[in-house]
Amino acid sequence: MSLESHEHEHTRFPDEDLPAGAVVDGAALTRDFDERYDFVVIGSGASGAVAAHTLASAGFSVAIVEEGPYAKTRELKEDVRGTFKRLLRDNGTQVLKGRVFMPMLQGRCVGGSTLINSAIAWRIPEDVVDDWQARFGVGDGITMKTLEPHFEALERDLNVHAVEDAVLGENNALFLDAAERKGLHATRMRRYERGCKGSGQCITGCPNGAKQGMSVSYVPWALATGRARVFCSTRALRVDVAGGRAVGVIAEANGRRVSLRARCGVFVAASTVQTPNLLRRSGLRARAIGQHFQAHPGVGAGGLFDRPVRMDFGATQGAESIALRSSDRIKLETIGMPPELACARVPGIGNELSSRLAQFGNVGVWVTNIRMQAEGTVGTQWDGRDVVKFTPNGADMLSARKALVLLGHMFLDSGAREVWPGVAGLPAIMTTHDEVERIADATMDPRGYSFIATHLFGAARLGPDPRTSVVSPEFEAHEARGLYVVDSSVFPTNLGVNPQHTIMALARMAATRVAERAARSAAA
Ligand SMILES: Cc1cc2nc3c(=O)[nH]c(=O)nc-3n(C[C@H](O)[C@H](O)[C@H](O)COP(=O)(O)OP(=O)(O)OC[C@H]3O[C@@H](n4cnc5c(N)ncnc54)[C@H](O)[C@@H]3O)c2cc1C
Ligand code: SF4
Fold it and tell me: 20 to 30 Å CA-CA from 333: which of 33, 279, 355, 464?
């Protein structure tokens, strides 16, 4: 037995030893539930977990309703198919439907997308806050100054720090070196982790309990207060609105009705994709519901080296550059991809494919996230399911091409023997800088690229005007008192950096203010 697995066996993870009765597993429910809490929170991802913890820490009783299961650290396996099937929405098969069917990944489990994400922490850039002030009237409540204490608390709680030497890994190190050669400012990522072992498995959930996703941090911390309870495998059908006020949540689990009354309010934290239709099902009719969906779709390239890169070792995503964020809306990142996901991009068929797969240990993958300008919609399709329509526009495609050209040159500069750009109509394998330059004239049709979307925004915008927004700058629905929306559906725009940190800071700020007001009115 290796030292690592021996240690692992004796570690107690925060998702073990939860208070008795704190987790209600909806999948095993055999009776209807009717309970009363101060607050009900829908969703246990980045926004919901933080809001629930903030409210419970302020002394309020809280029910968290989560559609997916509670997957404990010890159950997590390095198995892409199994993880996608159990813990991702629609088994990981969701797509943005537009000119191109673009895969869109979301966690559907306690912890939401934080269970499968890479734990990269970025504060909201100041220019975005300025824009929200100038164009969207978010007011004095959302400024760098008001957000500062929330970012600080989150960074302390979740141990945000730069990737350490011991777990940098070659894919990340090569990227930093290549960026330096290009004169591009690049840095190690700052991440939410305690004791990362560099297993490169963030996308299937951290088996070491190192990544500080919500299922091992704010959810267990909320439950540990003794005032919170999580109903997992329980789907919120609607918020119960009576007399213009949110009074509870009607959910269902295993065919049973779960009715959770809310004395003080309901927080919707179901994500950009699920929140708009949840609001519609709750009777809200604002014209802005479902409008202004935005994303940071990503597209990447592979590089084949003559020496080991070993994407299976190192922080899954450990190095990045925002040098071109303002000029070109591009953020460059590394990603350690498991072979099951990367192999779709390996060139060749038959023997050629086999021989390349045999060299998979020598492959690195670098990607770009694009702060796309296109906007889409979130609606309901014939069977009641959420449908997101989105098509990148011309400017977005120019950014994608520019980023892929840059990544191709960076791979060659750092010694890659082959670059795999993955663009339709171009050679699948490029070996010279001249060939890489051809990407600059590649098709503008988004169907020619393998985009994937994981950063999602908008569709229940925040703003002062009920004609153009869904919630007020205090995160309260214009149409229903006591109904707060705190996920990234309220963002007036996308960010150009990874969103989890900003989502959590806004949720924490909103919940803190609501808790203060509720405490004041209880005392009056
Ligand atoms: C693969 C991947 C990698 C990523 N990497 C990073 C990264 O490194 N850094 C970063 O900043 N961001 C990253 N992101 C994005 C980030 O994880 C999300 O932006 C963030 O988690 C969104 O928070 P949220 O609370 O809005 O939604 P989520 O975290 O997705 O949580 C929403 C939860 O609500 C639940 N829910 C939905 N509808 C209902 C309902 N009707 N009833 C009950 N529950 C419901 C869902 O099941 C889900 O668990 C990544 C995302 C993915 C998919
Ligand atoms: S890379 Fe680090 S944080 Fe990610 S799964 Fe491995 S040990 Fe956990």
Answer: 355
